[in-house]
Amino acid sequence: MATSVEQKQKIRDVVLTHAHLDHIAGLPLFIDDLFANLNEPVCVHATSEVVTVLERDIFNWSVYPRFSELAGRHGAVMKYQIFEAENSFTIKNLSFKAIEVNHKVPTVGLIISDEKTTIAMTGDTAEMDKFWDAANLEKRLDAILIECAFPDELNDLAHISHHLTPKSLHAEIAKCVHLDCPIFIINIKPMYRERVIKQIESLKIPNLAILEVGAVYEW
Fold it and tell me: What pLDDT is attached to residue 216?
């Protein structure tokens, strides 16, 4: 989790879209770093399928301690809050809608809103319709974050692993009715980053940019 020390001290809610390692790898160390000083538990929001994987394969005492069974000086250090795909939930002042997307394991995208702003984030996915159906029902979107993992020449690998390429990304964006909404590309595989960006730029998709790691975005 790319967070500063100050941010770590404030974060007490973590939302997971699915249980693949690149999306959960930072969670054990994040909680471990905070363990001694937590005065309230870190709440992990996830589907039941994701919680099952975490408890069975990560927080299983063999790989890492089962933090859901441990307490620090001020009580519990981690708890789960389960949500279901196609349902809504709230965290403080934010409203979340979880929408099933098309990935190799159970995965959700999210539509996140407060009183002023609404953004939609796919998480990892291949071609999908439910996500766009839900996003298109919103009166407005301030940003869309959508994955594009592999270059076009690795389409077979993208198909097998349920990811997008620039070509399939272009087709997905065409399903969105919010034509003036800024679009940010996320989850590019690091090894192929330059190739994917070059191919995306050649498509000249309006309002599209590559999300930069470490940059601050306000919507």
Answer: 87
204, 167 Cβ separation under 8 angstroms? no
User: Left, alpha or beta for 217 (phi > 0: left; psi -120 to 50: alpha)?
Assistant: beta
Amino acid making up residue 107 = T
Q: What is the DSSP letter of 58?
A: I
- In the chain, what percentage of residues exceed pLDDT 90? 85
* pLDDT tens-place string over residues 152-208: 999 999 999 999 999 999 999 999 999 899 999 999 999 999 999 999 999 999 999
| Measured distance CA(116)–CA(191) in Å, rounded | 37
Residue 35's alpha-carbon distances to 2, 23, 44, 122, 175, in angstroms, are 18, 21, 15, 31, 44
What does the pLDDT look like over 51-103, one tens digit per residue?
A: 999 999 999 999 999 999 998 888 899 999 999 999 999 999 999 999 999 99
CATH class (in words) of the domain with range 88-210: alpha beta
Does the predicted TM-score (pTM) go above 0.85? yes
CA distances from 176 to 66, 164, 179, 181 (A): 41, 16, 7, 9
Question: Radius of gyration (Cα) for the chain, nearest Å?
Answer: 18
CA distance 186 to 30: 22
* Sheet-wide strand order for 94-100: 88-91, 94-100, 108-113, 118-121, 143-147, 183-186, 208-210
What whole-number distance in Å separates Cα of residue 152 and Cα of residue 176? 21
- State the sign of the Cα–Cα–Cα–Cα dihedral 91, 92, 94, 95: positive
